[in-house]
Structure to design on (494 residues):
DNA sequence: TAGACCAATACGGTATACCATTTCAACCGT
DNA sequence: ACGGTTGAAATGGTATACCGTATTGGTCTA
């Protein structure tokens, strides 16, 4: 019967011939809920609850959860035989590891970017400079954290996406949103450290511009290592906001 | 009816109370088949064929395939609407990316290992030295490539596993077998470059011993970058063995 | 004989039924 | 009133039926 409803919904869709790829839809919606914090860290996730909320069936939901699990957005609280899923808690240790991994992954990207022929490098550098300038402006007037996220995200994508193969890209795409979870949790405090970040970005740009691959890699890694440090001090000062369970 | 058979099989199992976690079993068996090359690169994989071979049902097989897909062991040949799965082909580009990513991931591990307190570092170093010595011996008498894989694998695990958090470990565990696919394909040729590898390992050990984090990281990355180079030259010389489809 | 068309079917996507286990809470006995 | 017991509901795992599309192999025609 639900099948009928779903089919009818599909048929009502604009031009869609049929298939809607529920798993992708469920995956994205769920991930958005987790990243935005509407599903708080530690919250239990039941397949049937998701089905009820998103109106699909268990099979695609199951696939989506499987993927989220493997990417680290949800974790198994594996009590007993079953593995019950919860939204991955935000801890200091996990945050540090996440930041360092992304740093080294992007470090590889930066290395490759700085090894490009001069023409393409110049192109990338111009883009980076523009983004970082905007970021600096946005940092001075302290508001709209969303915009800041977006700019920082674009900055880092600018020298990774263009140069990374499919594997590195997919890793980056799955890790960055998890970073975002941490950043969103401590926005206001992290916002104060923006000028430092902007300066570190300058170093990255300079290294890529001059074709200094190792330097670019080091600069990116330093940027992330410092960010990890800043996050750690913020967390230890304010407590781990995201480690409790709200059943 | 098949259910009955399965249940009976379970009951016949030694002490098992019930659940066998088919998905893990299917995942591991399939992965082994892919890594060992019994399922050749480019081979099509159909859910129902796997079911027929491994005797489970489509749901767990589907989960296992999903995971293998995300980890990169299988790829979608996405013709048309469906995404048909094939064993990921072994190409020069992909191999290079794989090696570099693992290099940078392990670089992070080495950095952390070299940052450990002296006592634990000494412990790790002793282990590393022993493994590398055995590797050197094994290199001189040229046989048993399996043993060589194992030793190299253990060497790299020795400074990653002990120090890495769960995320880095899981990445490492999913990437290393994919490296193995490439290595297995070109064993005999790659075996000649072993002495070089042993020397590079010495550099890694020395850096960890002296607590030189950046040096250790660089040494590991260099080791992998060189390995990528060696693989690339071998592939371009012998052609891409793994890029054709055997339907 | 070569190419186009058509039917059988293989396949992936989805929905759902069923089972075993765990959880949770009402209920009963002390 | 409190703690233990039991049974119902929930949950995850598995098997399977059904759908629509894409592929394929064969036949018919030019």
């Amino acid at each position: 019967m639900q099948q009928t409803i779903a089919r009818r919904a599909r048929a009502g869709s604009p031009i869609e011939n049929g298939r809607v790829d529920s798993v992708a839809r469920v995956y994205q919606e769920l991930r958005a809920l987790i990243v935005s914090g509407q599903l708080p860290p530690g919250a239990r996730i039941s397949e049937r609850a998701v089905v009820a909320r998103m109106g699909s069936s268990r099979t695609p939901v199951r696939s989506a959860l499987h993927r989220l699990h493997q990417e680290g957005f949800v974790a198994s609280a594996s009590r007993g035989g079953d593995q019950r899923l919860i939204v991955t808690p935000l801890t200091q240790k996990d945050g540090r590891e996440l930041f360092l991994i992304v740093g080294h992954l992007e470090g590889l990207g930066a290395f490759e970017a700085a090894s490009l022929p001069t023409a393409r490098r110049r192109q990338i550098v111009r883009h980076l400079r523009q983004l970082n300038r905007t970021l600096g402006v946005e940092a001075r007037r302290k508001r709209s954290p969303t915009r800041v996220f977006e700019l920082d995200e674009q900055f880092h994508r600018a020298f990774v996406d263009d140069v990374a193969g499919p594997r590195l890209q997919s890793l980056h795409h799955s890790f960055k949103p998890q970073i975002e979870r941490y950043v969103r949790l401590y926005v206001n405090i992290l916002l104060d450290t923006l000028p430092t970040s902007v300066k570190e970005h300058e170093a990255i740009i300079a290294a890529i511009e001059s074709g200094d691959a190792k330097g670019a890699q080091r600069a990116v890694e330093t940027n992330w290592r410092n960010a990890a440090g800043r996050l750690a001090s913020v967390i230890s000062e304010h407590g781990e906001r995201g480690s409790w369970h709200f059943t």
Q: What stands out?
A: Chain B touches chain A at residues 18-19, 59, 62-63, 66-67, 70-72, 81, 93-94, 97-98, 100-101, 103-105, 107-108, 165-168, 171 (CB under 8 Å). Chain B is about 70% helix and 5% strand. Residues 64 and 88 of chain B are 15 Å apart (CA to CA).
